[in-house]
Amino acid sequence: MGFPRKKESGSYTYGDYLKWPGDERWEIIEGIAYNMSSAPSRRHRKVLIALLNEFYNYLKEKDCEVYCAPFDVRLPEGNEKDEEIKTVVQPDLAVICDRSKLDERGCKGSPDLIVEVITSSTASIDYIQKLALYEKHGVKEYWIVHPVDEVVMIYMLTDNRKYGRAIIYSKNDQVSTDLFDDLRIDLKEVFKE
Fold it and tell me: Residues 91-105: what's their mean pLDDT?
């Protein structure tokens, strides 16, 4: 399993990120920069497009919006200026219901729901670092989608602002969510070859 390449030294900010080459895809997690430029597989893209289609069609008459990578999500620690923010990620999918968080650069603040589709090079970050990061920043639901194993793991914030145990769905299930009580996603369609 590969790992994203880190920038060698320093603590980076969104201001630094804005100066980096546009042909490379970077994320900064609490000041540490990771190169996420490896090309996703065809399967990854197909699963992502299927999920984007499901969310887009469901949300098009609602107040929430869905975006897919590359789409900057800046997660400030407090009231720091944009250029001083030490965390910027590009989730595969982000659903934002508070439109005041949206600007021309993307989203500033926590999305309501984030989906990451696992690749071999990002799995450790998605399962460990981003899980802790999204919990810390109050992302209400975090979906980890494994296109090879055809599994979706959903973490939901509990009343104590911690993620509970993951709810795991397989290819033969329909995903439901507490955020949107009438949303049903048939995973047979999402994982269809």
Answer: 97
**Ordered domains of the chain (ranges, CATH):** 39-190 (3.90.1570.10)
CA atoms of 7 and 179, how far apart (whole Å): 36
Looking at residue 7, its pLDDT comes to: 59
CB atoms under 10 Å from CB of 159, counted, come to 6
Residue 47 to residue 60: CA distance in whole angstroms: 20
CA distance 171 to 112: 24
CA atoms of 95 and 74, how far apart (whole Å)? 14
| pLDDT for residue 161 | 92
pTM, full prediction: 0.93
Nearest Cα neighbor of 65 from 27, 119, 120, 102 is 102
Cis peptide, bond prior to residue 21, ω within 30 of zero: no
Q: What is the C-alpha to C-alpha distance for residues 94 and 154, in angstroms, rounded to an integer?
A: 14
Listing DSSP states for 131-184 in one string gives HHHHHHTT-SEEEEEETTTTEEEEEEB-TTSSB-SPEEEETTSEE--SSSTT--
* Measured distance CA(91)–CA(72) in Å, rounded: 8
